[in-house]
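step: validate -> pass
step: tokenize input -> pass
step: predict -> running
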Amino acid sequence: MNKFLLIFIYCTFFTDIVFAQEVKAPKWVGKVQKGSVFSVVSYDKDKNMLQSGTGFYIDANGMALADYNLFKGAYSAVVIDMKGKKYDVSKIMGADDMYSLVKFKVNVNKSIPVTTNANIEKGGEVYAVKFSQTGSATCPRSAVSEISPLDSGFVYYTLSDSISEEYTGAPLFNAVGEVVGIVQPSILNNGYAIGVKYAENLKIEAITNRSSSAALNNIKIYKGLPDTMEEALVYVFFQSKSADNDEYMALLNEFVETYPQNAEGYLKRATPLIDLHRFDEAERDLQTYLTLAEDKAKANSNVAEVVFTKLRLMADVEYDKWDYPTVHGYVDKAISLAPENVDYQIQKAQVLMNQKEYGSALEIYDKINTGKDKSPGTFYAAFLAHEALGDTATVKIAMLDSALVMYGDTLPSSASTLVMLRARLCESVGKYREAVRDFNTYSSLIGNQVNDNFYYDRSQLELKGRMYQQCLDDLESAIKLNPREPLYHVEKSGVHLRVNQLDECIEEAKKCIELDDKLFDAYRILGYAQIQKGDNVNGRKNLEKAISLGDTSAQEIIDTYLKSTNSK
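step: predict -> pass
step: emit ->
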């Protein structure tokens, strides 16, 4: 029964669809098909054909529009004109998957654009024109039955007749041969078109919306730059995080070609050139950047950073024009041009640290740390220099103290790393209670988002600092987070033994053995606690088990507390 119902519904709704009447093409259609309308063929990464359809030029420099689905998933595309000539699609200039549109540049010297007109009245005649190798003698004719406004002054047309699917993405002309829209998929007896101005307005933006970004990402062909230099710079920055090397390099090349007087393009291009071992080209770009840059101090610092990065990350690849004296030369130039800028002094110290000239670097940090430009960062840098020099924990703690004081009364979460470093240093010099305080501060700074390892580590400091109840509490917290870790149970049993809580000691030791019956520490602690409770038989048994597992201390307990093998 359901099968027959579906057939009835299909017949009712779909067999009665009326397509726009095919009429004799107006005279201007032949002219349009000869120059402005063309075939688009897209290919996947293996050069297999994906889709084919109609596109059309909207300016004399090869800018064109077509259906987005022709390009979705495409790695390359060509256009073919009526004479059979092929031209590569060089770049994508905008995409929209909501209305299935793509704007792209064709690698052609000169193109013949259609004439566009954003105005047509309700009831006006329209003609859909697709590419035809021979020149079509007919084309579908319809009329505008409704004009719906969209955001930003754009419009959407409803047509009185359905347009065949093969015309999707094709231009829709008015009676005098002006494009008013682009054909959209039809629904039942109505055709639809998006106003041509909406499609013409498609562009690459520095920060795209989610829909546009998804549409562009689904097309693997190179994308061009936004319209303005400012937006192009922002776009290049974001693309540096996601584009592959070839696409990013092509983008930089286009930026430099489009804006040859903008210094930033040359600086940005130097890094991928270095990655490609094209050092001479990178050096030329850096020198051009230095020439064009307005802030010479910053420019010298930036060039120093580029060369410094190459020396650090590509030390095994030599380039005779770049070495550490080169880096220092640029940094010293920056310092001489802007001696008040502490960043350039810090940069010099960082280069010295990388060269393992820790003493010279420390001299710079010490000078900064006695002046108005000191900061938590400069004290931390001094700490690292002292650490590299092998200085005492006391000296290093003093640097961390100074860094933390610089934050004021309320420490930010970013200070947590310094607090933990100080805790470990305090532990190394036996300042266990101070280390515990830093552990407490660290936990607070990170919102108490700590794991079982944190509680265990703090318990060991508390044990050394004779903070036994805190130690037991932390071991219990560690056990709650990781109840099947035998180490936590045996440690807790040992602390219970130390404070003469024998029943609790025995209970934890047994739990440990249940989890790991090869851990001799648990048997030794259990045996000793049982002897203290007067249970010499079980105590001896567990001590002998510890000995059999490799324990070296259990025999001493037997010799001291069990004089006779018959002891009860």
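step: describe -> The two ends are 89 Å apart (CA to CA).
step: cleanup -> pass
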